[in-house]
From TrEMBL:
Stretch forming the signal peptide: 1-18
InterPro entries, sorted: ARM-like (IPR011989), ARM-type_fold (IPR016024), LRR_dom_sf (IPR032675), ZER1-like_C (IPR055142), Zyg-11_UBL_adapter (IPR051341)
Protein's recorded name: Protein zer-1 homolog-like C-terminal domain-containing protein
Any one annotated GO CC term: Cul2-RING ubiquitin ligase complex
Organism from which the protein derives: Oesophagostomum dentatum
Keywords assigned by UniProt, alphabetized: Signal, Ubl conjugation pathway
Residue ranges of every copy of the Protein zer-1 homolog-like C-terminal domain listed in the record: 393-693
PANTHER family linked: PTHR12904, ZYG-11 FAMILY MEMBER B, CELL CYCLE REGULATOR (PTHR12904:SF22)
């Protein structure tokens, strides 16, 4: 086993490690094996691994998003000892792949929305026949078959004789299908949230039931009070509703008010209670819809009559956002958004559930707390807040409301110098979640603004460990899709900063996409025109964008001949010389232009093209001259830098064998001017970025 650890931990992918955050050597080893399975290069494993380790491998594959069809097949081929598989959010699988599950003796299985992809109906009987072995039928304790497709033969679930936990959440099943629970004597947890069950009478006398989840259930018949009274063994009860504003629940259906039904049970019998009840979720309920005081009375009654009740969620109820005095002396956790601690607590409680609406609601509350009272957050609260916000964003990637609120939270957590309060690993996760959102919602302008406002931070962009290639690529894609000027300015600034930090092969890969270079040249033309024809703020914005676009192109054309060719084909050379002429008194801008032209001049056809234009040659020679005695506040001599890069372009041009006839400047004239200029360069007090040495002939 120790040998395996040493082998599998070598060359651990940094991004994967950061994403999954393994807490032990065993988890890190499982993560490494998961990566190898994803790459289809797992070395032979000589002896069987313990089930706990096999389960960790499966979980790591799920977190890395590689528990897909190929991943499940490879996993089955390895013949690992696995007792727990969670395929939720892994996509749909055809039966030929799901049938591989029969190779494992499972105790826990979640296939929520995971299949089968070759049928619009989930037939429990067929699933058992094709995908479950006898050992699993006898030993399975946890089964999640939630989803949205039609389900048939639900009664066959009774074949899982040891089942303790069953989730049918989201399935369009009614109370008739629910009769199967009577044939599950060991059942302790039942989730029928968001189903079509309208009568829960079938649950009568299920005294072994410890957890009942009925989120967003609309009960219209049966004696609900009698059923609730009979469930004396309940420890967890969820009767929340999928609304974040109880006052906007416009349903016209005559549904039973479950919180009031519980109140009725308690008032009808002074001795009635749920003696083991520890947690109740009332989120989204109107709680009699008679104001804060009436809602507080209901919560107080539940706390006073249920001696072990220690957690009550009143999120999105009349009590939400209001202080509430607990009427009992034991420790009680009220899930509310009245304070910053409670708001973060609410998010911690809901992010890892399928309650998107409540997660978004809690995120909105956290956002307002960060916006209005960030300075009141302690370092530990900031760290916890960042962790749960990132977790929520990852879990609910495909919910726009969560992404909007969460990205706004990240902006306030990472704003300016605030980001220094976060650990490097926390910042990395913030960046990854922002990039996830930008990739998933490329055309949602406000979300794009949230993302790039967060990432456009000098401190953040200087950190090691950030995936600069992905950051640059997503920024470029966003730039292509979004026409918003603010998004364009931020993304081009980010590209210009992170492009030099990428590995050479990554930079070449990005630069090989001609769409990016074409768009950047278009930005140069557009902002050059805006600067010429505008003044005030618009001119300043154009100048800002122009500078960063030049920096980005300088880096993307470096050592990339194909990119330089595209740059020239898109009229980039002509635009560059237009900028040189317009900004003759801006050494910094001219240096960036000359840096690009240096790269372009390394391609023979392009330097020949520049050489044949006498105006280009003269403009370059003019850039050789300058006041070399002055340095700026940082000690940099901008005139020397400009002259240096102009000399670099000219040096490349001097290598051309055929000098254009009739040129006003001969080869000797150019060479002499270069030598004269170089001899005037002083020793610089600070180093100057340079890529090529100047050759004089």
């Amino acid at each position: 086993m120790l040998y395996l650890l040493s082998v599998f931990l070598s060359e651990m992918p940094v991004d994967a490690y950061a994403e999954c955050s393994p807490k032990s050597l065993l988890e890190a080893s499982a993560l490494r094996i998961a990566c190898l399975i994803g790459d289809d290069r797992v070395p032979p494993i000589g002896s069987p691994l313990p089930a706990h380790f096999g389960n960790l491998i499966v979980d790591a594959m799920r977190q890395l998003n590689i528990l897909d069809e190929k991943g499940l097949k490879r996993l089955a081929d390895l013949k690992l000892n696995i007792t727990k598989i969670d395929l939720a959010q892994c996509g749909h699988f055809p039966y030929v792949v799901l049938s591989r599950l029969a190779q494992f003796d499972l105790e826990s299985l979640s296939i929520s929305d995971a299949g089968p992809s070759d049928s619009s109906t989930f037939d429990i009987g067929e699933f058992i026949r094709e995908c479950v072995n006898d050992a699993t039928l006898k030993c399975l304790r946890y089964l999640n078959v939630g989803g949205h497709d039609k389900m048939t033969n639900v009664a066959r679930i009774a074949q899982f004789s040891s089942l303790e936990s069953l989730s049918l959440a989201g399935r369009p099943v009614c109370q008739t299908s629910l009769k199967v629970v009577r044939d599950l004597p060991n059942l302790k947890l039942l989730d029928i949230s968001n189903t079509l069950v309208a009568d829960i009478s079938v649950l009568n006398e299920l005294t072994n039931l410890e957890a009942l989840l009925m989120h967003n259930l609309r009960i219209r018949s049966g004696c609900v009070t009698e059923t609730l009274r009979s469930l004396s063994g309940l420890r967890v009860l969820d009767i929340s509703k999928e609304v974040t504003d109880y006052g906007t629940d416009s349903s016209q259906e005559a549904c039973v008010d479950l919180p009031l039904a519980m109140v009725q049970v308690l008032r009808d019998d002074p001795m009635a209670c749920w003696p083991y009840l520890k947690s109740i979720d009332l989120a989204g309920n109107s709680l009699a819809n008679m104001g804060v005081d009436r809602a507080a009375d209901i919560v107080s009654l539940l706390l006073e009559r249920n001696p072990r009740l220690e957690r009550v969620s009143v999120l999105a109820t009349p009590l939400d956002g209001h202080s509430y005095v607990v009427p009992v002396e034991r420790d009680v956790k009220i899930i509310n958004c009245a304070t910053r601690t409670q708001a973060v607590m609410a998010l911690s409680d809901y992010w890892n559930t399928d309650r998107d609406a409540f997660t978004a609601h809690a995120l909105h509350c956290v956002y307002y707390m960060l916006q209005s009272s960030y300075d009141d957050f302690s370092d530990s609260e900031v760290a916890e807040c960042a962790a749960v916000v990132c977790a929520a964003l990852r879990k609910h990637l495909h919910n726009l409301g969560v992404q909007m609120a969460g990205s706004a939270c990240l902006y306030h957590l990472c704003k300016l110098k605030r980001i220094s309060r976060l650990s490097i690993s926390a910042v990395r996760k913030c960046v990854d979640r922002c990039l996830d959102a930008a990739e998933t919602y490329p055309e949602t302008t406000q979300l794009q603004k949230n993302v790039w406002l967060t990432i456009c931070n000098d401190y953040l962009l200087q950190l090691s460990g950030i995936n600069f290639y992905r950051t640059c690529k997503v920024a470029l894609e966003s730039m292509l899709i979004n026409s918003d000027a603010g998004v364009s300015r931020m993304t081009i600034a980010i590209v210009s900063i992170v492009a030099p930090k990428m590995r050479s092969q990554d930079a070449r890969m990005l630069a090989s996409d001609v769409r990016y270079v074409k768009h950047l040249v278009h930005l140069l033309e557009q902002n050059l025109s805006h600067f010429r024809n505008s003044n005030g703020v618009r001119a300043e914005n154009s100048l800002y964008t122009l500078k960063f676009t030049l920096s980005a192109l300088w880096n993307l054309t470096d050592d990339c001949p194909a990119t330089c060719v595209v740059f020239a084909q898109e009229n980039g050379i002509a635009v560059s010389f237009d900028i040189l002429r317009l900004f003759e008194n801006h050494n910094n801008i001219q240096t960036k232009v000359l840096g690009i032209l240096n790269n372009v001049a390394e391609v023979y056809e392009q330097k020949l093209l520049m050489l044949r234009n006498s105006q280009y040659l003269e403009a370059l020679c003019e850039c050789l001259d300058g006041d070399f005695t002055r340095a700026d506040a940082t000690g940099r001599n901008r005139a020397v830098e400009r002259s240096y890069f102009a000399a670099g372009v000219l040096a490349n041009m001097l290598l051309c064998e055929q000098w254009p006839q009739g040129s006003r400047l001969s080869r000797e004239d150019v060479n002499e001017r270069m030598v004269k200029s170089i001899r005037l360069w002083p020793m610089l007090p600070v180093p100057m970025v340079s890529y090529r040495c100047v050759l004089c002939v």
